[in-house]
Design brief:
The chain is an alpha+beta fold.
Length: about 400
């Protein structure tokens, strides 16, 4: 290992104990040498007293020469010290800032006893996935590519994926300040009044079922449609499971009533299987990832309810405080977390269970027409469509 790499690891606190002691001895040597040079130069300046026979001018010249000599040596010593400081800044400032600033690139290692292998992951990825599911799950599975730029700077490419189609949302984090190149990265693709529940049927931008059937009839059979369906009445967990079991489709998102929590919260009702139990406490957050459910088909009502509760509890965890301050700030331009909306939602769901007022699906033309025959569906908002050539 080169000394530069060893010194950087020492600054980051990741150096082995034996090598750490060696670097500390090197630093001590430099301090001793600099102290010695300072004392030696002081002695050289005044070690020879000018003879009484010398005139005042001779004495002044001797003093000037000695001072000039001392300054030259001090300049050389200062240059060496400055060089050391610059090296320390280059290789030490970035790790130091990464310690005091939120670091989305930080990794953790977990040993998997089953495979006898080490799993390396970024805690930021799990926080981001849970957060995005709660607020805009209809965008699809969320992950991120994080690139360190140094000195507390990171570029973040948030990726959302539906059926293999990836959308990119660019962010930049500079010493805990988030710059949103995509202002809608964490905002639902659906307008605020996409469901009849949001503003009442008359104010909603969705269309009635008959009009939706008419428009679907004009589309090719190979089309896949992403649509937000509004229920005439709230559906509890059991009714939601019954509805999803009855109709074949990909179920992306269920917005739920969260009382006074504010905003729209929801969840993805299908397992995406992108986290393993080893990355979090299954006892503390049961079914945080629905991939934990080992049964067939749609997860049962109690599992979906546990999933929502665990998601809200996870966001309220102390480890996510800095994440919420930065990525879910309630004050524009400042890092201010608002855990109250999560706490209110959690208390409501724990007391009332999950109650959905709609559902977002990706379905073929044929599948969607079957769903629209259900009497509990009173409105449809078509988000987008694409050709399905498979």
């Amino acid at each position: 290992m080169k000394y530069r790499e060893k010194f950087q690891k020492y600054l980051e606190g990741n150096l082995e104990e034996e090598d750490t002691e060696a670097v500390q001895e090197d630093i001590e040597r430099i301090e001793v040498i600099l102290s010695y040079m300072d004392e030696k130069l002081d002695k050289e300046l005044f070690e020879e007293e000018p003879e009484e026979s010398r005139g005042t001018q001779t004495f002044q010249r001797e003093i000037s020469k000695a001072v000039e000599k001392k300054f030259r040596k001090y300049a050389a010593a200062s240059g060496a010290v400055v060089l050391i400081i610059v090296i320390a800044l280059i290789f030490g400032l970035s790790p130091f800032l990464n310690r005091i600033c939120y670091n989305p690139a930080r990794t953790k290692e977990i040993f998997d006893e089953k495979t006898e292998s080490v799993i390396v992951y970024q805690p930021f990825q799990l926080s981001l996935a849970v957060y995005m599911e709660l607020f805009c799950g209809e965008k699809g599975f969320a992950s991120a590519n994080v690139r360190e730029e140094g000195y507390g700077r990171y570029t973040i490419d948030v990726q959302t994926q539906i059926n293999g189609k990836v959308s990119h949302h660019a962010l930049e984090l500079v010493r805990n300040h988030l710059y949103r190149q995509d202002m809608f990265w964490n905002i639902s693709d659906m307008p605020g009044n996409a469901f009849t529940h949001d503003y009442g049927y008359e104010s909603s931008c969705c269309i009635d079922v008959e009009e939706a059937r008419k428009r679907l009839g004009e589309l090719p059979e190979t089309m896949k449609i992403r649509a937000a369906l509004s229920f005439e009445e709230m559906k509890d967990a059991e009714e939601l499971v019954k509805f999803m079991t009855q109709y074949e489709a990909q179920y992306l998102y269920i917005p739920i009533e969260v009382s006074s929590a504010g905003g729209r919260l929801g969840f993805i009702p299908e397992a995406v299987g992108y986290w393993t139990v080893d990355l979090y406490s299954q006892e503390e957050y049961p079914y945080l990832d629905l991939g934990q459910y080992e049964g067939e088909g749609i997860c049962p009502p109690e599992v979906l309810t546990e999933h929502v509760i665990s998601s809200l509890k996870f966001m309220l965890a102390e480890d996510n405080r800095k994440f919420l301050e930065i990525f879910d700030s309630s004050v524009p331009g400042e890092n201010v977390a608002n855990p109250l909306k999560y706490q209110n939602a959690l208390e409501y769901v724990e007391a009332q269970g999950i109650n959905g007022y709609g559902i977002v699906v990706v379905a073929s033309k044929e599948q969607l027409l079957k769903i629209l025959k259900d009497e509990s569906v009173e409105g449809v908002y078509m988000l987008d469509s694409s050709l399905d050539l498979n």
